[in-house]
Design goal:
heterodimer; A: alpha/beta; Rossmann fold; Alpha-Beta Plaits; four-stranded antiparallel sheet; 13 helices; B: mainly alpha; two-stranded antiparallel sheet; 9 helices; ATP hydrolysis activity (chain A); nucleotide-binding (chain A)
Chain lengths: ~300, ~250
């Protein structure tokens, strides 16, 4: 069953398109990472999916319904970001109580255990929490709600390393215990990639790729060697990333689709192979033209 | 296969209404402040009359709870306007909602607040009399209006509640219009007062006079009630229609 379907989805703001003809589908019970640079359109997409914003053109379906103004989508999804607005008059304990009244599958036990574990006080108020504590509390609400579609936008903002680690553990554990579709946007892919099943990479409102994390890890290969030696092997290829260093040495990232024969040849020529991590690859794939033309080194030197 | 939760709109509205009763307590606290302020202003009296003949001096000072009532209308208008602001609307989106249920639960809350506001405003009239009694010491206090029988009192109370509701609905609509575009913060008062000024100076049709006649000169209470409720319903419907397209968390 498809939980999310986008066809040619565009969200236009004055002067630019936050989402540009985006098409994607997300299947049921997947843990999907939404990755991309700042301004890639991650948050816009998530807000459209949760019915907060309205797409300018194209089609978007969540549970086969248009999410904007849909009570069904609202009841079965939750959107957690670092700007969560909870009623200021309610204490933390009251917010959890209200949430439990609204969300049918609310996990009372998990909510209160985590509440105690992370050292919250019942009478505290949400607006007085520190950035990291706020994110932690929002995360508790997001997990305990157990909505069939759970959307986390940068859930770890402000969390310290220990809490982040805890969060990823709880996320995976609870996901396995209660499978649901989880969409998670992050700038720290390396921290979550072991939990994720799929990655959806956006760049300037467009889909760059959508594949399983295993495929992504195998997608590219890093080659290191003398430029003259590398050149013939790369003749009819587009390198994803090129870095020059030392005396005519080059590090080149390219698609990992060399034949066995080519690889052996390269090895003989002294070219070193290395894997490219998912998070590095995502950065290389979303390097803008202006950055390629003029590297940061040129500016700094 | 994920089983989806089916929800009924009415259920969600009731839940939201219950949470708003808790979350919007601040609005009722401000009511107390506003009415006490109105009471304070009322202590000055609205009129003074003094005559003296042949060694007999007669001084009459008039007190009126009008100020409390006007302040309560203002409170209703502002509170409803406040409820349409970004922070309040986003609060609803922390839980299950759509724009319709969010608006309807707000209307239900405003209705409740109007009952409380109207009731306390009328009661504050009695408080004014008590306070005046103590201020004046051993002088005579003659009450008018308030003690004119249970039927008149009830009618007055209901009318008060309905009018607070009407003013609140106007505040709600004004708030929603401002949410559409910031420019209405300036444009709306300009249009309102400008239009009022213009319409009250035209010869053949005077809007303020018409409104006064339409609502306040209506002697048959049920008809008055129907007029006010219908007007408020119309205003809320327009607000609902506009806000149905409003995005949140831009």
């Amino acid at each position: 069953m498809k939980i999310i379907e986008c066809r040619q989805l565009t969200k236009a703001y004055r002067g630019f398109n936050a989402l540009d003809q985006l098409s994607c589908t997300i299947e049921e019970n997947k843990l999907v990472g939404l990755v991309g640079r700042n301004g890639a359109g991650k948050t816009t997409l998530m807000k459209i999916l949760s019915g907060m914003l309205k797409g300018t053109s194209g089609e978007v379906k969540v549970f086969s319904h248009r999410p904007f103004n849909s009570l069904l989508v609202s009841a079965n999804s939750i959107f957690i970001d670092d700007q969560m607005n909870f009623p200021t008059a309610l204490s933390l304990a009251e917010i959890l109580e209200e949430s439990s009244r609204f969300y049918e599958h609310w996990n009372e036990e998990l909510a209160w255990h985590l509440f105690d574990y992370f050292g919250f006080h019942k009478k505290e108020h949400h607006k007085n929490l520190s950035k990291g504590k706020e994110s932690t509390f929002n995360m508790i609400v997001g997990l305990a709600a157990r909505c069939p579609l759970t959307i986390f936008d940068e859930p770890t903002t402000g969390m310290d390393a220990a809490v982040r680690k805890d969060f990823y553990r709880i996320l995976l554990k609870d996901y396995l215990a209660y499978p649901r579709t989880i969409l998670l946007s992050t700038h720290h892919l390396e921290e979550v990639e072991d939990q994720l099943e799929e990655v959806l990479l956006l760049d300037r409102g467009k889909k760059v790729l959508h594949m399983s994390i295993e495929e992504l890890r195998e997608l590219a290969i890093g080659l290191k060697g003398k430029r003259e030696i590398l050149a013939p092997f790369l003749a009819d290829r587009n390198p994803i990333y090129t870095e020059v260093f030392g005396m005519g040495d080059e590090y080149i990232v390219t698609r990992n689709n060399f034949s066995q024969k080519e690889k052996q040849e390269m090895k003989r020529e002294g070219i070193q192979f290395s894997g490219v991590s998912a998070s590095d690859l995502c950065i290389y794939l979303t390097t803008s033209e202006s950055q390629k033309r003029r590297t940061l080194d040129d500016i700094l030197n | 296969m994920t089983s989806l939760t089916e929800v009924r709109t009415s259920e969600v509205i009731v839940k939201q209404y219950q949470y708003k009763l808790k979350a919007y307590m601040g609005i009722l606290t401000s009511l107390v402040t506003v009415q006490l302020l109105g009471l304070l202003f009322s202590l000055n009296g609205v009129g003074f009359l003094s005559t003296g003949t042949l060694g007999l001096d007669l001084s009459i000072k008039y007190y009126s709870a009008d100020m409390i009532i006007i302040f309560t209308f203002f409170w209703g208008f502002m509170s409803a306007l406040l409820m349409t602001t970004k922070a309040y609307r986003e609060d609803d989106f922390a839980f299950i909602t759509n724009r319709f249920s969010s608006n309807m639960s707000s209307v239900a809350f405003i209705a409740t607040a109007s009952v409380i506001g109207g009731l306390t405003a009328i009661m504050a009239g009695f408080l004014l009399r008590v306070v005046v009694y103590f201020i004046l010491g051993n002088k005579e206090v003659i009450g008018t209006g308030l003690a004119s029988g249970p039927l008149a009192f009830t009618t007055g109370l209901l009318a008060m509640i309905l009018l607070v509701f009407l003013f609140s609905s106007l505040g709600y609509l004004a708030g929603i219009i401002v949410q559409v575009h910031r420019v209405f913060v300036i444009l709306l008062p300009v249009l309102f007062f400008g239009g009022l000024q213009y319409l009250s100076s035209t010869e053949n049709w005077n809007l303020p006079a018409f409104l006064y006649e339409f609502y306040f000169q209506e002697s048959f209470f049920l008809l008055f009630a129907a007029k006010v409720v219908a007007s408020a319903a119309l205003v809320f419907t327009i607000a609902l229609w506009i806000s149905d397209q409003l995005e949140v968390k831009k």
